[in-house]
Records
---
Amino acid sequence: MTSPASKPTDSSADQPFEHQSVEVLKGVGPSVAAKLEKLGIHRVQDLLFHLPLRYEDRTRVVPISSLKHGSQGVIEGTITRTEVRYGGRSGRSLLCDLSDGPATLLLRFFYFNASQQANLVEGVRLRCYGEARFHRHRLEMVHPEYRRLLDGQPAPVEETMTPVYAKTEGVHQTLLRSLIDQVLHRLDIEQLREYVPAETLAPYGFPGLQQAIRVLHHPPPETSLNLLQQCEHPAQQRMIFEELLAHQLSLMQLRQRVQKQRAVPLSLTAKRRKAFEQALAFELTSAQRVVIDEILNDLAKPSPMMRLLQGDVGSGKTVVAAHAALAAVSGDKQAAIMAPTEILAEQLYSNFCDWFPPESCVMLTGKDKGGIRGRKLDAIGSAEAHIVIGTHALFQQDVEFNRLALVVIDEQHRFGVHQRLALKDKGQTDACIPHQLIMTATPIPRSLAMTAYADLDYSVLDALPSGRKPVSTVVVPEQRRQEVLDRVAKACAAGEQAYWVCTLVEESEALQCQAAEATAAALQRALPNLNVGLIHGRMNQEQKNSSVERFRQGAVNLLVATTVIEVGVDVPNASLMVIENAERLGLAQLHQLRGRVGRGTRQSACVLLYSSPLSERSRQRLAILRETSNGFAIAQKDLEMRGPGEVLGTRQTGLMQMHIADIVRDEHWLTEVSAASRHLLQNHPENIRPLIRRWLGHAERYGVV
Ligand code: ADP
Ligand code: MG
């Protein structure tokens, strides 16, 4: 009794094999499928593109004498001695000498059971795989994989290199390998579609997709392990190229979609601009003028501006944003300016009130409740407020703009892509969307910016206002804390002000704040003549503001702070900063923190305190900060040392989830990848969607416009 309604509705069954759900594979039920999903594997094809992290060579047995410290390999030998030794971290350990004739190696097991102990006795022949290391002048393997060799029974080695995959809870190497093998096997009948045209691949001599995939999952024994580990094998290079291409295309599409949208053109008359600039307390730098021109040029167009403005800490981005706001206000439209913290929002609000009639500016943050909030919402809704400054509170449902034409997002590295899109939706009236200006002080090297933000135009403030002196930076071990205290006392006695930044090992904000409180108390005891203030993330907004205010007015000499002061605090008289445990922070963050001093005309200093011993890497990192004050140079180094994932933050882009490409390592491909993207857009547009889907999955991580 079959009615059409009771038929299984496996919609994926009529799709090509590669697009079907992993559940079509043997051994994959809903529970395994759910686990695979955690690895981003939904469809059959995703398994093929789940490329190995590294490889092991189990294709041949190597002599023990060929092993070096840190090298891995398969060895064979006979146990010549076994001993259980007591003591050490696990209470007891099992030690076996394994000899292959010319050389002997020690096998060390910290954990073992009775049957292992009974098996691993003198005279037994073993084959082992593991990593060799030198310990107390002897070569050893700790917990190697092993199997017993029996006379007359052949023990074949692996025919190809063994891939090692990223795994997750409940999905182990063996399962991944067998599933991938299942798919590779089916590929003999089915063909994996090529989306990159032959003419694009030809100049590089890349292997075809199917061949590349086979090689990467099962490199033949003659493949150079070294080449593979460096990701320089032609099969890897081909995949890297294709992945970068997919990302580039996805961003280009995003950009094209934006360009098809409409926006209200905003123009600013020369007269109005001149009047505004004449009222400023300073002359604009030429870098600021260039960027302002770029922005005004964009704003005058009937399609939305999508521009990223990068400028080092203190380069004067706020006044640039004010020009954009001026263009909006001049056209009787509204501008929204969003900051990541309340402190920063306050700071922006006070800047804008200096530059615009204060009654046309409104600040909306999470602390606005009840009647006050209601009145502010009315002002926003009626466009009585032309300039609206706020925090995340601007995203809330009940915030309705009247004619929002410009969105400025300050310090955008603190926000996710989705937030920036949500605010933009607020302006979606009459099928027009607001112009967007995104500002960041995290100086990202240009090449990275072009890839990570290829959907945006890009401006840079490449010079600081004149008269700024670089902050002289020293690196000092914790043991010399007393000298640092003396220095703080001396500076404050001379009328200067100082910050003391506590960074804590603990992740928890509560603990960080406790530590800052304790440090403030200790510093007050050590420096009884000073007024020590405190600011941390657990204080309410009033307390924070009053701390900053007392510091600004000079009532506090030394402000103890957590990293909450990273953005937004602008006290020009502060000229000394001490950062504790500096070795634990990223370079970009240290640079941001350091940017809180050096804002006045005085020579400023930054003391980076570290706890010894300092690793070689940390020493190098801190030295970079001591030697350079240019945020871009620092960012470039940071990127080289830490990789884009950590530098940009995982919320920012999909780049970190790349399967095989690494935007720093593979930067040299970017120009050719751009050319290939344009070629595809022009000549093979039908391949773009499936190519993006193949590499970026359903998510299209950059968001949808
Ligand atoms: P950031 O780029 O870090 O946001 P700000 O916009 O906060 O920098 O500017 C830092 C400081 O420099 C502010 O006190 C601002 O008034 C000042 N400033 C901005 N532009 C100039 C300029 N052209 N000349 C002198 N000072 C300037
Ligand atoms: Mg700023």
---
Amino acid sequence: MSKITKSLFGDLEGKSIYRFTLYNNKGNCVSIINYGAIITSWRVQDKDIVAGFGNLKDYINNDAYFGCIAGRYANRIAAGKFRINGNLYELARNNGKNHLHGGNKGFDKVVWDTGSNEMEEQPLSLHYLSKDGEEGYPGNLKVKVEYDYTDDEELIIGYFAETDKATPVNLTSHCYFNLTGDVSKNILDHSLLINADHYTPVNESQIPTGEIKAVGETAFDFKEMTTIAGNNSTMEAGYDHNFVLNKNGDPFSFAASLVAPEDDLQLSVFTTEPGLQLYTGNFLDGHLINRDGKPINQHSALCLETQHFPDSPNQPGFPPCILLPGKKYFSKTVYKISYNGKAAREIQTKEG
Ligand code: GAL
């Protein structure tokens, strides 16, 4: 078992916010705070591969969901409405006329419970009770997220939930990656492979049309490793789209691989989820400042969000997302680092 260290990160509404750091035997570490269950840092060799801030205030004030767990329903729900068994539910509309990432105060903006144990060993477990009616959602939802960082460089995220009324649930990690460790370098130069033959086209307010469309040889074709910039030539702002992952009957499967331009670090993603939202930081505009003082600009970092498809509560053709009382929600995603080129040589030298 690898170790966890704990230090005070700040205070909010009379509650202590801690930073937990999960180490592996390579000396690399992932830090998580119990505000928003946010991943604040992932240090690999000499780089921090996630963009983020050095203090709690910046996390509280950020409007871009940095490193958080997004929920109760990550991504958009059209017009903030859905029906279950004929009952209409109306949610907070916090993204134009739509609902986004759980509403005005989603799981990204709440203090998660660290439980009674001292958590000196992994996994780190964070709990949150989302009350019946919160942001308009039905049912008391008990949520648990577990973080585990292994000696094989896998960051394993386990998501668990139970409810007392039928409710949509869709949980994801909203980490912003830049594998160069330098947010002044544009992530459009990273290469990406997505294990998806299809994606879900969206309308002008980013709500899926319901179609599941073949990526063909379009800008959505990441079936082979290709630079994002190269593929993106026809798309102005970048990507903010859901890809339909190829599952081939395997519930836990390979979703994507991202490679830094110098080709030394590779991040691979595996998941039980049916979809992957590729968000290339299109709305980032330099007003948020990274922990090292550098502005986080458009395309400074990207998210690979494993999840159910956007607006699933209103889309009968999409995989179902309604959790029923007595049933258990479980989802698992692994982000795994591997080394190429210079990084691999450094590891070899260290290991003798
Ligand atoms: C992404 C979403 C984007 C944007 C972003 C937060 O998950 O796909 O449209 O809302 O979060 O700024």
